[in-house]
Amino acid sequence: MEPRFTQNTTHRGLFQSAIMLVVLLLGISTGTNAQTTNVSPYCNVQHTGMGTLGSCANSWGFHFLRVKLNTIDHSVSCTNSSVTTGSYPYRFWNSGPTTTLSAGGTYTIEMQTASTTYVTGAAAWIDWNQNNTFDASEAILFGVTGSTAPWFSKSFSVPCNALPGKTRIRVRCQYATAFTAAQACANVTYGETMDYEITIANSSNPSANFFLPDTIFAGSPANFINANKDGYISHEWSTSVAGLSTIEATTTHFEYTFPAAGNYQVRLSSTNCSGTATTT
C-alpha cells in the first residue's frame, strides 16, 4: 500500500519557528553543513509525492540518515523547508562534507535510509568525466532495496581515466522500488536526492613497501602489513618457499606461515594507474 501524506502545519510551523529562535538566541550549533537547493549545472530531479514538506513529509522516512564514503561520515536530518527550484526534496552540500578519491583506488560507499515501515531503494553515481551528467556507466550502487532503516553498501574502483579535480557524487533513495543505473535524473514519487562535491586525485608513481613482524616463528602465522593501502588497483604477494614467481595472495596485507626455521624472501608487487612497483 502506498503511503498517503496529509499536511497539518498550523501549530507545527509555530513550534519549529520557536525552536529555531531559541537556537539562534543561545548560539547552539545544529550540526548542519551549508547546503543549497540549486542543482545547476546538473539535472533537476523531482519527488512529486513529497510536496513542499520536503523529506520530512509525514515522517514516513523516505530520506537519508547517514552517508559514508572514505573520510565522509555524514549524519543527515530530514528537511521540511520549501524548495523553490521544483526539485523537492533535493540538497547539494556545497560546503561539505567532502573527500578525495585516488584514481585506481577502491572504496566503499555506505548509506542508511530512515523508513522503518516501507521498503526503500537507494543508488549512487559519480561524474567521473566531469561532463555535468550522471551517466548510467557512472552508477556505483543501484538495483537494491531494503527495509527497517536499511544500510546499503557497495565497493567500487575509481577508473584510471577519471578526470582529476572536483566533481559530484549523487545519492538517491525512493519508496519501494530499486533504481536502475540510468535513473540518476528520473522523477520519482517519494524519496530524496542529495549531491556532494568530491575531488579525484591523480595516481602517484607506484611504490611497493611493507612492514615486517618483529618476530616470526616457524609454524605460526606471520603478518606483513602493506604500506600502500589506498589508491592501488592490485597487490601480489609471493615467497621464496613456493618460488618468487608464484603468486600466493592478492590481498592488501599478507599472512603467511613458514614451514620451518630458515632464511626466506617475501615479494610484493603493487599496481596503480601509473604502473607497477616491486620490492623483495
Give a short synopsis of this structure.
This protein is mainly β.
Kindly report how far apart the N and C termini lie. Answer: 62 Å
Strand content: 35-45%
H and E order? HEEEEEEEEEEEEEEEE
Radius of gyration, rounded? 24 Å
The SS-based structural class is mainly beta
Average pLDDT works out at 85
Share of residues in helices: under 10%
What does the overall shape look like? elongated
Number of strands: 16
Largest sheet: 6 strands, mixed
Number of helices: 1
Low-confidence stretches: 1-32
Describe it.
This protein is mainly beta and 280 residues long. Helix content is 6%, strand content 35%. It contains one helix and 16 strands. It has one helix at residues 10-26, and strands at residues 64-69, 72-75, 90-93, 100-102, 106-113, 120-126, 139-146, 151-157, 165-175, 191-201, 210-211, 221-226, 234-239, 254-257, 266-272, 275-279. The termini are far apart. The relative contact order is 0.16.
